[in-house]
Structures are given as C-alpha cells and as structure tokens.
Amino acid sequence: MGDGQARFPAEWEPQSAILLAWPHAGTDWSDRLGEVEDSYIALVAAITRFQPAIVCVADADVEAYARARLASARIDMARVRFVEVEYDDTWLRDTGPITLREGSGFRMLDFRFTGWGGKFDAGRDDRLAGRLHEAGIFLNSSLQNIDFALEGGAIETDGEGTLLSTLHCLRERHPDISREELEARLGAWLHQDRFLWLRRGYLEGDDTDAHIDTLARFSAPDAIVYQDCDDSADSHHEELQAMAAELAAMRTRDGAPYRLFALPWPAPVRDGGRRLPASYANFLIINGAVLMPAYGDPADARAAEVLARAFPGREIVQVPCRPFVWQNGSLHCLTMQLPEGSVAP
Prior knowledge:
CATH superfamily: L-arginine/glycine Amidinotransferase, Chain A
Largest sheet: 4 strands, mixed
Distance between the termini: 18 Å
Mean pLDDT: 96
C-alpha cells in the first residue's frame, strides 16, 4: 500500500482523528454507566474542539443514544463519526490498530489482544482492529496481522526510532522470550532501532502489568514526562523514585540526558478499600492540545503547569477522569490517535 520505509510516528505529530468506543450496559461500565457517560461526553467535547472523533458503537441503539447525549451537550456533531462494530470493552489504546506511516500510505498493525495476559475475556476486542479496517474507515492503508501479544499502552515512541517501555509488562506477556529477541521482533514490526527499558515503576490497582503510558511518556525526542511520587509515606514512593533515577540515567540518541518533567502525585483515589491507579501520565496529545486526566485533586492544577512546560504552544485541557479509574485506566487508555491522512472522508 505504501511506497517507502515504514515509520512509527510520535503521538504529537498531526492527526486525522481520535478513535474511542462508547460505554454501554454490555461493558464493564454497566454498574456506573451514568457518571462514566458524563466523563465520556467531556472527553469527546475536548477532542472535537481540536479535531474529529471516531466513536465505535455496539449497535444502532447505542449509536442513537450516544448521538443524542453528545448532541445535547452542544458538541460539534460534524466532527463526530460513528462506526458500528462489536467490542468487549472500551480500552482502544490496547485494542485499536497501531499505525505506521509507509510512504504515501499507512500500515495498520493488528497485534494479538489477550485481555492483558488472559485476565479478561477479549475475543471481540482481539478482532476489533480487523473489523474497523473492513468497515473502510482507514484511507490508503493495509492491515498487518501479527500473532504476538502487544498493547498500545505498553509502548512509547519518539517518532525517530526510539521505543520506551517497561520490561515487566513484555516479560509477563512473553516469559520465554529474551530481551534481545523482544528487541529484534519489536524493532522489525515497529521499525525502532533504540530501546529504553524501565525495570522499576508500578501503580497499585493497575491490571496491565505496568503499561508505560501510566508511568513515563515522551513529550519530544529529547524530553520525558513521568509520574513522580514525593510522599515518602506512600507505598509507591520507593518504586517511583527508583524509576525516576532510571529515567535520569537514560540518554538520547545524541548521548545527552533527557529533559525530565516530573508530574505531581495525586492523593490516593480509592473505591472502597481498593487503591485505584490514578496517574497524570495518562494524558493524550492531540492537534494543538494535551488532554490531561483530572481527579478533582489540588494537584490537578500543578500537573497542568508541568504539562504546559513540557508541551509549549499546546493548550492543556483537563478532563474529569475519576470515573474512569474505577476500571483501572484513564483517558489515554480509552483512545487511539489516527495520523493525519489515515482516515477516509
């Protein structure tokens, strides 16, 4: 489909749309659907201020309901497109396609999705990327099926061939594969030639085995934003301080230290006695803006200030995400960006 070398673009590069899926009573959101829908509406409203949103819906009834809810919130419906497709859950960062630019076209990578290592049923989610491709929403694109478990939330790229990830997550999915073999396979599929592996860093309540997009993210080829913990009494303190030290020891392709931006630590978010993985690192970069998880915490404002320094020239938009972390993720986990030119009119 393309006519040149494939490249994995960085999230800050121009986008056509953001892909997400509407929650409904058949998903794990069913017990708290009302408050979750309110946060979804806020998320779609924030996206469509800057670019289109493609919203997956399970059937015509879900589409009609979602359309009515979004329209009543005065969202620009000309920037909302619905596509009917089956899904088990709504974490499209991990079930949607990973898009490579390939010459004048695109290669959509469809890795296996196993419900984060077999924790949850995922048969429909594993087929999602292929069904979206069949639906014709992608422009000038080919689909590559890869029989290898990998989630989009587990990887970060700087757009210049460097991949950032956590070794724990990939080893949980592939315990019998060496780091060298992991690098060889990921390098070939994702067209990366440098690998930065974090060995430390975790969040209580996280069921992804330490996805990188809850811990540390590129904001430029020479800059990383990460979730800090400065509360010495918190159970995360030792681990996240060790992660910060690992990041400080990493070097760019040119051999320089990365510019590091430490995000403040929010107060614990709990559901009953369960600690939830609230992280400011789960932000989403879109055209002209960064959408930031907000948890109704005084640290929200400080996190916005850090992101404004890390992303000069982009508007920082806070999206209420407290309802999302009930199911152990936030707004980056729920979305997948589609590069400019990859979406059919």
